[in-house]
Amino acid sequence: MRQSTLFHNTLRESPSDAEVVSHQLMLRAGFIRQLAAGIYTYMPLGRRVLRKAEQIVREEMDRAGAQELLMPAMQPAELWKESGRYSQYGPELIRLRDRHDREFALGPTHEEVITSLVTNEINSYRRLPVTLYQIQTKFRDERRPRFGLLRGREFLMKDAYSFDTDWKGLDRSYWNMFHAYQRIFTRLGINFRAVEADAGTIGGEGGTHEFMALADIGEDTIAACTCCDYAANLEKAESGTTDIPDGQMISDDDTEVEKFYTPEIKTIEQLVQSLQISPMDIIKTVVFIADDKVVAVAVRGDHEINEIKVKNYLGAQDIVIADSEALAKISGVTVGFIGPMDLPFPVLVDHTVAHMTSGIAGANELNHHVRNLYPIRDLELTHVGDFRNVTEGEKCPRCEEGILKFNRGIEIGHVFKLGTKYSEQLGATFLDPSGKEQTMIMGCYGIGVSRILSAVIEQNHDDNGVIWPTTLAPFQVHLIPISIKDDKQTELAQKLYHLLLENGIEVLMDDRDERPGVKFKDSDLIGIPIRIIVGKGAEQEHVEITLRKHNVKESLHVDDAIARINELVKSIH
Ligand SMILES: O=C(C[C@@H]1CCCCN1)Cn1cnc2cc(Cl)c(F)cc2c1=O
Ligand SMILES: [Mg+2]
């Protein structure tokens, strides 16, 4: 490709609303252009990268035996009403009416569509199992789209769905997809972890794993063990620490609970300051509204409540902290002095609190707290469980030696065991060998294909721009004649350009009439891994090869260039 004809511009500065490196560089290097918030055009260079990412996903899906199809983006609302999800989702689900005033949704995902399709096409166990996938644009009207392709409102997803006759079959399909994902992200050169995750809104009856690209700007926190391969999204991570840590106020258990005056002392910090105690000695009690029920959760003062664990324990659809006006309507609650004792609604007690021997807590009375609270003695521990976020440094729940370290991650893949959640609602059944009607067992598997570009750039860039792995680079070689006014250089560059093309190498030649500095800055921004410079050495038919990733330079005769380039294309990642 000749850069003088390429529909492409680089920007000296990145727009102010681009906050993360990958967003800034994609705009500055000319890979994408924003049409509207969260909605982007892939420019020719960006489209080439996206197509390579798609192709790697497609190859590994096909290798895993999945079959590609392509479903519509416009989905009849009836399907979503049948699955009960039409009302479950709010403004995030983009709804529209066609010219006959019939209701549609723009597909954010395709469980309903694929399940109704399979129901109509398959009715015998002999036709199962089958895994179907598509690579298709999804629509989710995010309230705050941000970070470029990382959280867009129109994005490219590979979504796959497996249909099995039984749970064992689902297990096989699930791990088949899991291993295909490992191959995909390895080929993409991404530093990733598969982590145990929460199934979130999709529900489902089995396990679920997320594939996380490690990156400081990632929205998710991962807890991973230093010794074994345990890794979990913080939403789900458990701790191995159940022993009562030292520094705990140990008191013999006949010291009665005692109320004491704490005027205007409402927060953990104020308690710590005024009583000169540690947050570990405090029982923090927070009131939630789960669906329409009031519940309180009590965790130790140095821990954070994990709302997803609470929601899952209660089996609630949604959960929200009771704000001050909600609290005002709840009897027995005194804002700022809420404690776990004698509340007129259930209290979920974290196991760490249950093991405390003497805690400080709100007295459920204005300006008063209690001390010497001994949960085993003073609380009816009907709901004891894991309701908190693990903290870094705690013991691994799976092995003896390891401890949990935190990382930030970008979710680039998510695999789910769905079970019969959708097949039941949409009647996806089959006749088993005895002719009995059974419900299909499903799994679903997503990869954020457009999000991969952001994750790769977050992990592969320097101050000057992107550093593409060869598997994704828009071109393999950037051929740069220093001056197109010098005939020797132009002639040699043309010769090498055709040689490279004849050898099937993807080459972009910067034949623009620009100063060398501009060419090098643009080349650094775009991030093509191999660069060939045709400069002064053109007299002796010598060219210079450098790698974008390392500034190592080697000069060699043009006849040796092809062989060297082929070596480099294969070697560097
Ligand atoms: O999409 C999934 C689960 C899997 C992920 C892998 C591929 C198949 N689907 C979860 N999810 C996320 N956001 C959504 C947003 C809207 Cl507006 C919606 F209506 C539905 C969903 C929704 O179901
Ligand atoms: Mg997730």
Automatic annotation (TrEMBL):
<dbReference type="GO" id="GO:0016740">
    <property type="term" value="F:transferase activity"/>
</dbReference>
<dbReference type="GO" id="GO:0002161">
    <property type="term" value="F:aminoacyl-tRNA deacylase activity"/>
</dbReference>
<keyword id="KW-0547">Nucleotide-binding</keyword>
<keyword id="KW-0963">Cytoplasm</keyword>
<comment type="similarity">
    <text>Belongs to the class-II aminoacyl-tRNA synthetase family. ProS type 1 subfamily.</text>
</comment>
<dbReference type="InterPro" id="IPR004154">
    <property type="entry name" value="Anticodon-bd"/>
</dbReference>
<comment type="subunit">
    <text>Homodimer.</text>
</comment>
<dbReference type="GO" id="GO:0006433">
    <property type="term" value="P:prolyl-tRNA aminoacylation"/>
</dbReference>
<dbReference type="InterPro" id="IPR023717">
    <property type="entry name" value="Pro-tRNA-Synthase_IIa_type1"/>
</dbReference>
<dbReference type="InterPro" id="IPR045864">
    <property type="entry name" value="aa-tRNA-synth_II/BPL/LPL"/>
</dbReference>
<dbReference type="GO" id="GO:0140096">
    <property type="term" value="F:catalytic activity, acting on a protein"/>
</dbReference>
<dbReference type="InterPro" id="IPR007214">
    <property type="entry name" value="YbaK/aa-tRNA-synth-assoc-dom"/>
</dbReference>
<protein>
    <recommendedName>
        <fullName>Proline--tRNA ligase</fullName>
        <ecNumber>6.1.1.15</ecNumber>
    </recommendedName>
</protein>
<dbReference type="InterPro" id="IPR006195">
    <property type="entry name" value="aa-tRNA-synth_II"/>
</dbReference>
<dbReference type="InterPro" id="IPR002314">
    <property type="entry name" value="aa-tRNA-synt_IIb"/>
</dbReference>
<dbReference type="InterPro" id="IPR004500">
    <property type="entry name" value="Pro-tRNA-synth_IIa_bac-type"/>
</dbReference>
<keyword id="KW-0067">ATP-binding</keyword>
<dbReference type="InterPro" id="IPR036621">
    <property type="entry name" value="Anticodon-bd_dom_sf"/>
</dbReference>
<dbReference type="InterPro" id="IPR050062">
    <property type="entry name" value="Pro-tRNA_synthetase"/>
</dbReference>
<dbReference type="Pfam" id="PF00587">
    <property type="entry name" value="tRNA-synt_2b"/>
</dbReference>
<dbReference type="InterPro" id="IPR036754">
    <property type="entry name" value="YbaK/aa-tRNA-synt-asso_dom_sf"/>
</dbReference>
<dbReference type="InterPro" id="IPR044140">
    <property type="entry name" value="ProRS_anticodon_short"/>
</dbReference>
<keyword id="KW-0030">Aminoacyl-tRNA synthetase</keyword>
<dbReference type="InterPro" id="IPR033730">
    <property type="entry name" value="ProRS_core_prok"/>
</dbReference>
<dbReference type="GO" id="GO:0004827">
    <property type="term" value="F:proline-tRNA ligase activity"/>
</dbReference>
<comment type="function">
    <text>Catalyzes the attachment of proline to tRNA(Pro) in a two-step reaction: proline is first activated by ATP to form Pro-AMP and then transferred to the acceptor end of tRNA(Pro). As ProRS can inadvertently accommodate and process non-cognate amino acids such as alanine and cysteine, to avoid such errors it has two additional distinct editing activities against alanine. One activity is designated as 'pretransfer' editing and involves the tRNA(Pro)-independent hydrolysis of activated Ala-AMP.</text>
</comment>
<dbReference type="GO" id="GO:0005524">
    <property type="term" value="F:ATP binding"/>
</dbReference>
<keyword id="KW-0648">Protein biosynthesis</keyword>
<dbReference type="InterPro" id="IPR002316">
    <property type="entry name" value="Pro-tRNA-ligase_IIa"/>
</dbReference>
<keyword id="KW-0436">Ligase</keyword>
<feature type="domain" description="Aminoacyl-transfer RNA synthetases class-II family profile">
    <location>
        <begin position="38"/>
        <end position="469"/>
    </location>
</feature>
<dbReference type="GO" id="GO:0005829">
    <property type="term" value="C:cytosol"/>
</dbReference>
<dbReference type="Pfam" id="PF03129">
    <property type="entry name" value="HGTP_anticodon"/>
</dbReference>
<dbReference type="Pfam" id="PF04073">
    <property type="entry name" value="tRNA_edit"/>
</dbReference>
